[in-house]
Design goal:
Blueprint: H1 3-23, H2 28-45, H3 47-61, H4 67-89, H5 91-96, H6 98-101, E1 102-105, H7 107-113, E2 120-124, H8 130-142, E3 149-153, H9 159-169, E4 175-178, H10 182-191, E5 195-199, E6 209-213, E7 216-220, H11 223-231, E8 235-242, E9 248-253, H12 264-285
Parallel strand pairs: 1-9, 2-5, 2-8, 3-4, 3-5
Antiparallel strand pairs: 6-7, 8-9
Helix pairs in contact: 2-4, 3-4, 11-12
Amino acid sequence: MDGFQKAAHLFEYALIRLAGFFLNLLPFSFTLRFARPVGILLFWVLRRSRRTALENLKQAYGSEKSDSEIRKIAQESFARLAEFGAEWLRMTQIARDPMRYLAIRGVEKIHSALKQGKGAMLLVSHTGNWEIMALIVGLLMAKPVGASIYALARPLKNLYLYEHSLRLRGLTGLKSIHKTGGVRETFNQLKENGIVSTLIDQRVGEGGVEVNFFGRPALTTGLPAVAALRLGTPVFFLFCHRTSDLRFIMDVEGPVEIEKTGDLKHDIRVNTQAFNDRIEAGIRKDPARWLWMHNRWRA
């Protein structure tokens, strides 16, 4: 990183922290209302991201939705992303009063699965607030049973922001596994009966499994399927939503039934496809909640 880029990243980090300081002086509901028009503004200002979102939606829905419907979904997706940012800036306050803001349903499924001693794999998507979920899994899932909780993390370009995000995720005990060497570290933690979460709808490059997502080929991590097939690790889905009274409720779904034919390559692909199908079904219920400006289908 050259001196200019380092200074630019430091300025960006300082600006975001300053904005967070002032926003935290205001009521939570006000910051969310303020975030929405900011998101709509970003829809018009960030031309490249807007174009990516519109193209992704058109490819995903084709003739199912009109151009006006697609544009409306894209705008709402930007508004939801701005709300996500406002929530992220308040994570420290949320962690200070977790019983006011955080809740989980179905966690007993994971606690029961951990008795097998094979860990647990959690599949998360870019819907809701996946950063707030880090607080929930640390405090309400792992801590009650004394389990270790980890998340596979892809570093941000701005290292100052990345280090800050790691601190926020760790407020209730979650630790990060860097994507470099992440497979080996994930397996090691699962063998120690740890819990590992990963974003299943994020594009991967080397080692990715090509499956269909909204009818288009998408490179997807095969790690959860490999862990389930080789280690017998149970796999769960996590879904999170914010209620009208500003609570974040996370639902646990699973354990997922894993197909095993004895053909490892075939089983990895089939199960990874099933994981993607479940995420897609969830997105279709409320498309605007997903991160359409993410270049998921990049070759």
